[in-house]
């Protein structure tokens, strides 16, 4: 079975632009979570989506938004990009909404904001 | 506000010896703790977990210990192997929130 896939692999944007990152979960997984990992730090929780609804949100500004589609894939949108948004964005899927279920991570999208 | 902390950014251990990675947390509402391993250019992979109602969980060479009174958990790897060289993150969950630590880079020297 295919693991979690993310696209694109790398992305370069300039300040003020908008970006959309995509994630396809493992087949059968209904929960998708997004994380931001800044260089030298651990991943920070941004969102959890389950059954197409937002179920959890970390401490991120409203410039960050996401959605989940009927096939459980997900998009993360970031508006008005800042230099500080440069990071590795990780997507994780799991079968249920519970964080006690193992999360399976994709390889990430490396976003560079110039 | 770093609720999960790993105070050792790096650790070097000889092959065959024990590796001990430490993690401290501040939020007493955390009810589930996990360790993830991350290789370069890959996403984190789950290693082992422990519920807050337990104080020890073992899986092969990996054992996680939880000390709730000290708000401290540790991961023991015995014996350490060169393939264990990676960045290790502890993580904790409370309800619909999930927190990672800052990571410890483990190098196992052959």
What would you note in describing this structure?
The complex is a heterodimer of chains A (114) and B (110). Chain A has 114 residues and is mostly beta strands. Chain A is globular. Chain B has no helices and eleven strands. Classes of the chains: A mainly beta (114), B mainly beta (110). The interface between A and B is medium-sized, with 26 and 24 residues.
- Structural class computed from helices and strand pairing of chain A: mainly beta
Strand residue content of chain A:
over 45%
Which segments of chain B are poorly predicted (pLDDT under 50) over 5 or more consecutive residues? none
What proportion of the residues of chain B form beta strands (DSSP E)? Answer: over 45%
Number of helices of chain A: 0
Q: What string gives the helices and strands of chain A in order? A: EEEEEEEEEEE
Quaternary arrangement of the chains shown? heterodimer
Distance between the ends of chain B: 38 Å
Number of strands of chain A: 11
The rounded Rg of chain B comes to 13 Å
Number of helices of chain B: 0
Secondary-structure element pattern of chain B, one letter each: EEEEEEEEEEE
- The count of β-strands of chain B is 11
**Largest interface chains and counts:** A-B, 26 and 24 residues
Outline the biggest β-sheet of chain B: 6 strands, mixed
In whole angstroms, the N-to-C terminal distance of chain A is 37 Å
Principal-axis shape of chain A = globular
> Could you give a short account of the major beta sheet of chain A?
7 strands, mixed
Give the secondary structure arrangement, pairings included.
The complex is a heterodimer of chains A (114) and B (110).
Chain A: E1 5-7, E2 10-13, E3 19-24, E4 31-37, E5 44-50, E6 53-57, E7 64-68, E8 74-78, E9 87-94, E10 104-105, E11 109-113
Parallel strand pairs in A: 2-11
Antiparallel strand pairs in A: 1-3, 3-8, 4-5, 4-9, 5-6, 7-8, 9-10, 9-11
Chain B: E1 4-5, E2 10-14, E3 19-25, E4 32-38, E5 45-51, E6 56-59, E7 62-67, E8 72-77, E9 86-94, E10 97-100, E11 104-109
């Amino acid at each position: 079975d295919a693991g979690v896939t993310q696209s694109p692999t790398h992305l370069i944007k300039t300040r003020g632009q908008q970006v959309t990152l995509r994630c396809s979960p493992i087949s059968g997984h209904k929960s998708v979570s997004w994380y931001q990992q800044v260089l030298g730090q651990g991943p920070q929780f941004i969102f959890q989506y389950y059954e197409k609804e937002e179920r959890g949100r970390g401490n991120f500004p409203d410039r960050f938004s996401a959605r989940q589609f009927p096939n459980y894939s997900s998009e993360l949108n970031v508006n008005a990009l800042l230099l500080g948004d440069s990071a590795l964005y990780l997507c994780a899927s799991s079968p249920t909404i519970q964080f006690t279920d193992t999360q399976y991570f994709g390889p990430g999208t490396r976003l560079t904001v110039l | 506000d770093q609720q999960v902390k790993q105070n050792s950014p790096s650790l070097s251990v000889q092959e065959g010896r024990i590796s001990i990675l430490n993690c401290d947390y501040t939020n007493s509402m955390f009810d589930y703790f996990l360790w993830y391993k991350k290789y370069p250019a890959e996403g984190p992979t789950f290693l082992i977990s422990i519920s807050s109602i337990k104080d020890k969980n073992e899986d092969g060479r990996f054992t996680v210990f939880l000390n709730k009174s000290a708000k401290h958990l540790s991961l023991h790897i015995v014996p350490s192997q060169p393939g264990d060289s990676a960045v290790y993150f502890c993580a904790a969950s409370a309800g619909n929130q999930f927190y990672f630590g800052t990571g410890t880079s483990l190098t196992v020297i052959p």
